[in-house]
Amino acid sequence: MTLGGAGRFWPDLAPVLLPTHPVHFVEEITSAQNPLVKLARALERKKARIESGLFLTEGARHVTEGLDNGWQLHALLLSDAATDRDQVRALARQALDHGARVARVPERVLESLTHRDNAQNVIALFRMRLAGLEALAGARRLIALERPRDPGNLGTIIRLADSTGCGGVVILEEGCDPFSVEAVRASMGSVFAVPVVRCGVDAFDAWRRQEGLRLIGTSLEGSVRHTDVDPGARTCILMGNEQSGLPPAMAALCDGLVRLPMAGRADSLNLALATAVTVYEVWRRSGFDGARF
Amino acid sequence: MTLGGAGRFWPDLAPVLLPTHPVHFVEEITSAQNPLVKLARALERKKARIESGLFLTEGARHVTEGLDNGWQLHALLLSDAATDRDQVRALARQALDHGARVARVPERVLESLTHRDNAQNVIALFRMRLAGLEALAGARRLIALERPRDPGNLGTIIRLADSTGCGGVVILEEGCDPFSVEAVRASMGSVFAVPVVRCGVDAFDAWRRQEGLRLIGTSLEGSVRHTDVDPGARTCILMGNEQSGLPPAMAALCDGLVRLPMAGRADSLNLALATAVTVYEVWRRSGFDGARF
């Protein structure tokens, strides 16, 4: 980890910093052309995320969740205004403790990173991390998505998985990037809490059979309503993608194929909504086990 | 309705056009500075929508739905490529029949309107139209939203209302614009099929009492699960907004206040997902009346 030449000592935090850390002060960055700012900006693009292994998250609360869940923080960018807040100062200390770079950045520079007028005052660069199937062992509920296309849907579904005690989200074959800015934003911090696995269909199907998970697909070709299927004691819900639904070969792997009742002229729901309705129905059938309420 | 000076005769369609229509030919537009193109581009902004009374929709299928549902078409913009398709040619005829302007526009100009690389080949300018409460009379299910903020959520909920046979969507007090590009896009054409009403809380509550609709609010303060409330024979589901949930004064109006079970670290669901789970549960309790499946 290099400091670059722009670092200046930030006295307010200095007394609390341990001298053993490689980076033990807060840098001041004023230029939008600073290499760290340019890196952060580049993380909008998948190519830059793959090359650097990093992704962007916004907001102090979500950064805390990342750290609490053991994600590796690379750098923290704070606006001038944010550094007045006790919570943010504590976060800066925690970040330095983790060996991350911490930089104070003008608000207009942060806004240029988030494309928002009311930028979050805290932006973090974390190292990307996908889980393996073994992280899902013992899950009572899972969500598998076949090639999801919309990162907003993917992030919202990761948040849903978190809210409903699902053990994780499996992206089958290819699919949009769970670490894109839009997906991370929609996940509202849940991307740090829910294991996300990317996996081929065959490997996934072999694993879930061994695990004893019942695979319930939702499809316009389904022959029973989602309320009428036997979800079994442990269930993986399988959703086709936004454009084309579940391919026949994958539908054939399912233990049950359900369809959501529809009225009116619409022939489908938004993917994230359909997933939510199905997951809540499966969870209802098990008496909402593990719910806080 | 004026033609402007740029109109050129488009011979392929001429034979089918009735001579009694004020506009009976397809204009050729080549410039991104053409007033109609500039108007279309301006409709991204709420101010321009209010001033013109118009909004934008994309895609031949959705334009057809607008026309079939009696919405007033102001203008239709077609890409060069689109005019090769029979469906689009039929649509152009139908649009001229309705007295709308029809223009052929280079693809790059259409792309600049939608900010998409793969632009829809058909863009339409329709006249905005909100419904009154009387349009909701007799509905078995309704969705009311308190000051929704995210147009993507609003559009998705309008699509949900369509899919579940809800009589309409009520936006209470202020809220984001159902005719914004993002809301219309997320509604997937349902904005043409589902009455959307904007209304004050007091007027709405008086109306729904007179109608005999049971008002079920969802709130983090709710004391029963959404599966345990009596939805009554006719139900209006009331959802608070994305930031602050249901205000106490509105919660007090409700016949029942429910809460979705939650697990994990997440303390809430995305608004559209929470609405979907609640609506499907209410619908399930009535045996999915009116479902096609």
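Chain B is about 30% helix and 20% strand.
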